[in-house]
Amino acid sequence: MTELALVALASLFAGCVDAIVGGGGLILVPALFGMYPGASPATLLGTNKGSGIWGTAWATVQFARRVQLPWKALLPAAAAALAGSFAGAWVLTLASPEGLRKALPIVLFAVLAYTLARKDLGRHHAPRLQGGVQTLMACGIGVAVGFYDGFFGPGAGSFFVFLFVRLLGFDFLNASASAKLLNTATNAAALLLLASKGHVWWHVAAVLALANVAGSLLGTRLALRHGAGFVRAAFILVVAALIGKTGWDAFLR
Fold first, then answer.
1. Region for residue 200 given its phi and psi (left: phi exceeds 0; alpha: psi -120 to 50; beta: otherwise)
2. Which residues contact 108 (CB under 8 A, 6 or more apart)?
3. Residue 239 · residue 111 · CB < 8 Å
4. CB-based contacts of 69, cutoff 8 Å, min separation 6
5. Closest to 23 measured CA to CA, from 225, 191, 229, 179
6. At what angle do helices 156-168 and 131-151 cross, to 10 degrees?
7. Is 29 within 8 Å of 54 (Cβ atoms)?
8. Would you write out the chain's pLDDT as a tens digit for each of its 253 residues?
9. What distance, in Å, lies between the first and last C-alpha atoms of the chain?
């Protein structure tokens, strides 16, 4: 019960961070591995997905009530992200992501450096594409990041946010809100694959899901109350943490 209470607390915090800008896995996954060291990694990752998907879906609903989302572009993009995630997971059965593991902290550092250099990046919502062109670009983002999420995964939410800001001209608040729908789709793909192989502790996932949704509610309210500048600052912190975590895993562990 103590172990479950501690990972539930981690899930609440993860839901809050995930709702603001993504990156909740940075918190919950290490907590699961620390509390259940003898469990199969696939089972712990499946349990993480089984809880996190609810917080992400809840954040999508909450953002949709307050932010005008471009549904005509996002719904096809979510389908593309779902397909991309399945494809990435399939490729994972054939190839190792070791090369990507070493490249990831470098890519994330470039994302962070670009965001810091462009002080106005993502502060103002000025979509630069419309209609079918916006849908096509959103689908391209969905399938590319979805594939990455299925194949490897860390930082997928941050990549969604950054690409919506950089390529579509969204501010960080609208980008984060839009990313939640696509992240829900990629999480669903991963959950279906892992659950089909029995890699989910549903009794643990149910408790963590409740905590994750509570954290998601808090994070969504913070993001909506404080706006794009707050989400941008949270994005910078999460990406910096991702650089530290992925750099340690790739080069120092």
1. beta
2. 155, 158, 239, 242, 243, 246
3. yes
4. 63, 174, 177, 178, 181
5. 179
6. 160
7. no
8. 789 999 999 999 999 999 999 888 889 989 998 999 999 888 998 999 999 999 999 999 999 999 999 999 999 999 999 999 999 888 887 887 788 888 999 999 999 999 999 999 999 999 999 999 999 999 999 999 999 988 888 889 999 999 999 999 999 999 999 999 999 999 999 899 889 989 899 999 999 999 999 999 999 999 999 999 999 999 999 999 999 999 998 888 7
9. 31
Specify whether the CB–CB gap between 23 and 238 falls below 8 A: yes
Which tokens is 233 given?
């600052």
Using alpha carbons only, what angle is made at residue 68 by residues 62 and 69, rounded to the nearest 5 degrees? 85
Whether 212 and 14 have beta carbons less than 8 Å apart is answered as yes
Beta-carbon neighbour count of residue 100 at 10 Å? 16
